């Protein structure tokens, strides 16, 4: 079996740039996922994020989750649960406007650290987008600009914990889906595994690795690259032992950004065969996505195509 791509950014600006760019290209084209090491975010800082996240879970979230499980009788289910996930989560928004100061129950230190973490991840996401531009033959800044809309990108974090689950075959940690947005950066538990992606019809583990950042491609990059890069189905299998931490940050288009295939990436052949991805406002895609997240993505693209045929997109305000 092919090996899950682990890529070091250590020499991206040195004598291994070409080889590193090639690894990123291959991962984007063939996996939709890769794991980054030496990405520039200090290991000690990541340890602090992990410690505070786990502390917050134990102090604030764990009891709530136990109560939820009890109230729904999830411990004793006998048949597959298809409308719920075995996860405890909360969300933070960083861009266009941060909501961290309003999120309840967070310790001040934790708020501060998550704000700092988001800044580092935002920078890394933008660096990655430019590396993708280079590999795709797009001008520097193309993807960042494509996401910009009138207020800049949307950037947020979903903090999840997957507690030990007595019936992992009957209830998923997180059901299979592709991510709706742009590029996703994940800081996952280095001991408790569970994240899997679907490749060539097989579920493959995304291996836990200390201080790494897992990167994956969302639906919007699939559209902009006209399918050269694809978002890939993934899921979380809850484990019977250990609580899995997962901090996923989503660098997405602004809500009014108009998303469409980069003209230079639409080949004549695709045009002739009517295999061009749709053009739409990101917010409209998200409205649809939230109702069909756990269904295949192709009908989503088709639905946006149908809308596109009926609506002429007006000019987007830039002020
Ligand atoms: Fe996801």
From TrEMBL:
Annotated ranges, domain Fe2OG dioxygenase: 153-253
MF terms in GO: 1-aminocyclopropane-1-carboxylate oxidase activity; L-ascorbic acid binding; metal ion binding
Source organism: Rhamnella rubrinervis
Coiled-coil blocks: 107-134
Top class in the EC scheme: oxidoreductase
Family affiliation: Belongs to the iron/ascorbate-dependent oxidoreductase family.
GO BP term, example: fruit ripening
The keyword Metal-binding belongs to this UniProt entry's keyword annotation: yes
UniProt pathway annotation: Alkene biosynthesis; ethylene biosynthesis via S-adenosyl-L-methionine; ethylene from S-adenosyl-L-methionine: step 2/2
Protein name from the UniProt record: aminocyclopropanecarboxylate oxidase
Keywords: Coiled coil, Ethylene biosynthesis, Fruit ripening, Iron, Metal-binding, Oxidoreductase, Vitamin C
Entry-linked Pfam families: 2OG-FeII_Oxy (PF03171), DIOX_N (PF14226)
The EC number(s) this enzyme carries: 1.14.17.4
